[in-house]
Amino acid sequence: MEKSIKQTVKSSKAAQGIVSVKKCRMYVERYLVPGVVVNRSQVYINGEIAERIKKFLAMTAPGVSVSGFINSIVAAHLDDNIKVMKVLYDVGLDKARW
User: Fold this and answer.
1) Are the C-beta atoms of residues 54 and 61 closer than 8 Å to each other?
2) First-to-final CA distance of the chain
3) Predicted confidence band of residue 1 (pLDDT cuts 50, 70, 90)
4) Number of C-beta neighbours around residue 11 at 10 A
5) Residue 86, exposed/middle/buried by CB under 10 A (0-12, 13-18, 19+)?
6) CA 41, CA 25: separation in Å to the nearest integer?
7) In the predicted model, what is the mean pLDDT of the chain?
């Protein structure tokens, strides 16, 4: 029988005192959900980062593709930072450098 995230995090010596079960659950629900990337566009990332992501996903979420994981991260970043990005867009990047 597979352990739940809560059981795994609580029993992990590596996780003790570092991260809460709630944060782990939120991370899994936000970033490690298999999905289909539609209307795709090719982009490039550093090879070392790609390898780290592949290793991470192989151990934590084998059903999640690298592109799906990166898509989730970028979508969350855009959602979390939309107000700041709108201001920077409105004032123009050159004017916003400080």
Assistant:
1) no
2) 55
3) very low
4) 10
5) exposed
6) 30
7) 84
**Per residue in 8-50, pLDDT tens?**
666 666 566 677 888 888 988 899 988 888 898 999 999 999 9
Q: What is the spatial distance between Cα 18 and Cα 48, in angstroms, rounded to a whole number?
A: 25
Q: Please state, as a whole number, how many other Cβ atoms lie within 10 Å of the Cβ of residue 31.
A: 19
- Output 2 or 46, whichever has higher pLDDT: 46
- Helices 82-91, 66-80: crossing angle, 10 deg rounding: 70
Q: Which residues contact 30 (CB under 8 A, 6 or more apart)?
A: 72, 76
d(CA 13, CA 1): 21
The separation between CA 40 and the C-alpha centre of its own chain, rounded to angstroms, equals: 18
Rg (CA), the chain: 17
